[in-house]
Structure formats: structure tokens, C-alpha cells
Amino acid sequence: MKRYAVAAAALALTLSLPTAAHAAAPSAAPAPAAAVVPQVLPIGVAVGALPLAVEDRTGYQRTSFRHWNSGDVPADGCNTRAEVLLAEAVVHPEIGPGCTLTGGVWWSYYDEREVTLAGALDIDHMVPLAEAWDSGASAWTAARREAYANDQGQQASLVAVTARSNRSKADQDPAEWLPPSADALCRYGAEWTATKLRWGLAVDEAERDRLLDIAAGCGGTDVEFTPAP
Questions:
Q1: pLDDT digits (tens, 9 = 90+) for 118-136
Q2: What would the pLDDT profile of 63-116 be if each residue is shown by its tens digit?
Q3: Burial (Cβ within 10 Å: 0-12, 13-18, ≥19) of residue 123
């Protein structure tokens, strides 16, 4: 089948992440660390590069992922949720005391709806916290789980969407839930894959197969991700 041919080809891929320069002689100044650059892969190859594992939710608690914290700019008085809303606004809202947002316009791509009230939006973890736990985050430190839950280092990680669509999704993976808008499918599959690659998270068999099905219908779609620090 086409999706398995894509997967087989992908398994031969070695992701070439930047490495630090060789150590200089003792008398020389240390070389600066190499910058981490985004990786760009065709969606089928990217899905095939995801590690395969059986998921396990044993011990999961939502409180294991601290959110929302003070965000990327603590001095702005806005938490991560508010910073994402500001970053994704189509029309910028006014910022009041305590980072209260009034006015503004947002586009919820899951269900293709325009939203004009910040309180009507949820900030969706592209890969839900419970799914991240199942897929490898259970072995992380509390600090790394907090970094994941507040990740603004890659646009796909957190997305402002209608509360209705986010709560319909809950903690389901693509084998169980997809956005109601057909036009959102390729973007959603690419962003889910990008988030899992960024954080080194695994997929289970049903999830991988659904992602490969999506990839088969999304030729020309690329997945761009930057490995998390």
C-alpha cells in the first residue's frame, strides 16, 4: 500500500541535526555552539521518522504539566495563554491591566470560525498533555514537562481555537479525532507530526497509520520542526 511504501522509505532517513564544532586547542577560545536550525521534511517522510511505541497512561495527572506560566516575556505581565492569543490575533486586541484582552479577532482553523471574544477561545496543546505523557513525557523531569506545556518556541505547539473544537478533541490523537474542517486536515497532520518530532515523542500503530493516510492525501505538504532544547 502507498502509505507503507512511504513509511519504508522514511525509515531509511537519518535526520541530520546540527552538531557542535570540534573542540579547539587548549590555547584557543572555545567555539560558539552551533545554532539549531529547523528541519523540513515531506509529510510522509516526517511521519515515517516518528518512533513507534505502545502508549501507557499509568500515573498521568494533568498537574504534572505546570501551565500557564509567566510566558516567554515575564515582564509583560501576560501568561502563556495571553501571549499565544496576542501572537495569533488577526486583529490585535487592546491590552488592559493584568493583561486583560479586549477587542481583537482570531481565526480558529479547526472549524473555520472567526472569533471576536478572547474568552471564547481555548489554547490547544497540539499534542494533548495526556497524549504527550503516553508517548514519552512520563519519563521527563517536571521542568521539561512545564517547558512542553508552555512551548512557544514552535508555532504549531500551541494554537488558539474555539473552546467547542478543543473540548471535542480532548486528549484524543488523530486516530480518534480530526478537525471538523476538511481544509484543516493537511495542516493538522503536519503540525501534530512536527510537535511530536520536536519533542521526541512516539506514536502508536493506529496513530501512525492514520497519519500516513493523511500524508497520502497531502502531497506537497512539508513538516517543519525545530528540536526542543
A1: 999 999 999 999 999 999 9
A2: 999 999 999 999 999 999 999 999 999 999 999 999 999 999 999 999 999 999
A3: buried
* Number of C-beta neighbours around residue 107 at 10 A: 13
Cross-strand pairs, 48:
none
Residue 151: count of CB within 10 angstroms of its CB: 22
226 DSSP assignment: -
**Residues whose CB is less than 8 angstroms from the CB of residue 220 and which lie 6 or more positions away in sequence, other chains included:** none
Rg of the Cα atoms in the chain: 19
DSSP 191: H
Q: Which residues pair with 108 in a beta bridge?
A: 113
Compute the distance between CA of residue 22 and CA of residue 9 in angstroms, rounded to an integer: 32
The amino acid occupying position 201 is L
Q: Nearest-CA neighbor of 156 among 217, 208, 225?
A: 225
Distance set, CA 180 to CA 105, 108, 169, 188, 215 (Å): 21, 11, 10, 11, 17
Per DSSP, what are the bridge partners of residue 123? 160
Locate 72 and state its grid cell: 516567554
DSSP secondary structure string, 3-15?
Answer: HHHHHHHHHT---
Q: Give the rounded distance of the alpha carbon of 228 from its chain centre.
A: 11
pLDDT at 87: 97
